[in-house]
Amino acid sequence: PFCFADGQIISSEKATLHPMDLGLIRGYGIFDFFRTVNFKPLFLESYLDRFLASAEKTFLPMDYSRAELRAIIHELIEKNNLKEGGIRMVLSGGVSPNHFSPAKGKLFIFAESLIFPAQEKYDKGIKLLSLEYVRPIAEIKTTNYAYPVWDSMRWKDAGAEDVIYHMNGILSESSRSNFFIVKDGIISTPDLHVLMGITRKHVIELAGDVQIRPISMQEALNADEAFITSTTKVLLPVTQIDEHEIGTGKPGSVSLGLLEKFRELEK
Ligand code: PDD
């Protein structure tokens, strides 16, 4: 596969990172991740908006304009013959003179094969394990996933597919997805300490009327339906949190209706 590194498109094995880069020694950097559908990047401008905003908010200089990034991405799709795949853009924290302050990072753009959840998970819904945690600077798409990567080793023992994070009983998001509930036909999603997911944004638009507000764990356990959204999962029904069944314990009609509507946007 080909990737973009050191200002050019090269074979991915040739890409290098300085060992003192803050991305490696401090976990400081930003990224974004989108899909191609039939060789076309889905919602590219929204992902570029977020990526450029992340760079600015983390004080990392970005040497490439939106138009340049777009051109590199299109060239990579062509070179990698990426019909249905993922593209990740990463801007590292850079090599810092004091090994701490944000520096001039290195930009990588590369193709990834997509790992979609099995159809069975959409049919049956998934279980989430609740854990107390809040992502640091959650609104920014940083590469800091140390706690989620670490706690993922506990999900399987709990029979859970993923996690729902809360702080003092107020929910935020899952490890790599946003969270929604449905109660009496009203759709709600947490407002604070969450990434402004591109899938979340489109689901909010499709639903038309979504309450964006604090949601307690108690409320989620009493909901009729729940689901998570992300670029790769799109919309995955949640039918259990810890030992509590959500609603009927089966994926709900509002969730499945929204998933169907989203599939239309992909065409
Ligand atoms: N994750 N919240 C977090 C913490 C995420 O990492 C992601 C995306 C989302 C969903 O955002 P979007 O709908 O824009 O994908 C929410 C990506 C897929 C990843 O970790 O690779």
From TrEMBL:
It is an enzyme of class 2 (transferase). Its EC number is 2.6.1.42. GO terms for molecular function: branched-chain-amino-acid transaminase activity. InterPro entries: Aminotrans_IV, Aminotransferase-like, BCAT-like_C, BCAT-like_N, Class-IV_PLP-Dep_Aminotrnsfr. GO terms for biological process: amino acid biosynthetic process; carboxylic acid biosynthetic process. The keyword Transferase applies. Its cofactor is pyridoxal 5'-phosphate. The keyword Nucleotide-binding does not apply. Pfam families: Aminotran_4. It catalyses: L-leucine + 2-oxoglutarate = 4-methyl-2-oxopentanoate + L-glutamate; L-valine + 2-oxoglutarate = 3-methyl-2-oxobutanoate + L-glutamate; L-isoleucine + 2-oxoglutarate = (S)-3-methyl-2-oxopentanoate + L-glutamate. Pathway: Amino-acid biosynthesis; L-valine biosynthesis; L-valine from pyruvate: step 4/4; Amino-acid biosynthesis; L-isoleucine biosynthesis; L-isoleucine from 2-oxobutanoate: step 4/4; Amino-acid biosynthesis; L-leucine biosynthesis; L-leucine from 3-methyl-2-oxobutanoate: step 4/4. Belongs to the class-IV pyridoxal-phosphate-dependent aminotransferase family. This is branched-chain-amino-acid transaminase.
